[in-house]
Structures are given as structure tokens and as C-alpha cells.
Amino acid sequence: MTSSLSTDSRHNAKSRSFIAKLLRRITSDDDELDAEVLALNSARQGACSCSRAEPGERVLAAGRLRSVIYTPSENAPALTAELYDGSGALQLVWLGRRRIPGIEPGRSVKVQGRVALRDGERTIYNPWYELQRG
Questions:
Q1: Fewest CB atoms less than 10 Å from the CB: which of 2, 6, 14, 105?
Q2: Does pLDDT of 27 surpass 80?
Q3: CB 84 within 8 A of CB 38
Q4: Count of structural domains, the chain
């Protein structure tokens, strides 16, 4: 009788957990759910949260590129991208570059470099990067 009760209580707990997850998915907006998935994927890759990256620190970060902008300049053209991991964002700046194949909005990437503060935003200059699937 005891094993039957423990099996029933485990089944009830799983059912409540499933219902709670289902309700959360129904009531949450798409941005919240996307942020959760990005944060989870970032953590699985052993990456630092963008929101916790401190200036001067060398970090490994992973996420999705939200925007990519080319800034023409006579002195130093630059390609700037915003990496979002669900917790926050990092600005990625490649100096002297007009375009990098694969660096485009919506692309998942893993980057590594030293964090600097530029205009109040966390920034990595000329980061090492790896394009990711999905």
C-alpha cells in the first residue's frame, strides 16, 4: 500500500508540475519565454550572463544577435552587433570591418573577449566568435 501511495503522490506532483508549466507558457508573452530559453542555452554552454559581465573581465558569452550595424568612418569603420542572452546585452564591435559573413541579426553566436564600458554599455572589441546552429 505504501508504494502505491508514493507512486500516486509522484504522479500527482508531475501532473501539477506539467499544469504549472503549461499555464506559464500560456500566460507569458513570447519575449519572456524566448529570454528564458536563451538564458538556459547560454548557461548550458558555460557562458557568463551578459548582465553580470564586468568591465575589465574576460568573458565567454553566448546568445542571439539582435542587431548588426555598419558604421562608416574615414578613420576607422566598425561593425557593431548587439548580443542578447536573455539576461542582458553586450555590444560587440569589430574595428576596421564592414561585413563579417554569418554575423547577421537572429544568428546565434558564442563570443569571447575582454569587457569594456563604452557610453555606459558593456562592450567587447574585436571578439573571438563562433557561429552556432539555430
A1: 2
A2: no
A3: yes
A4: 1
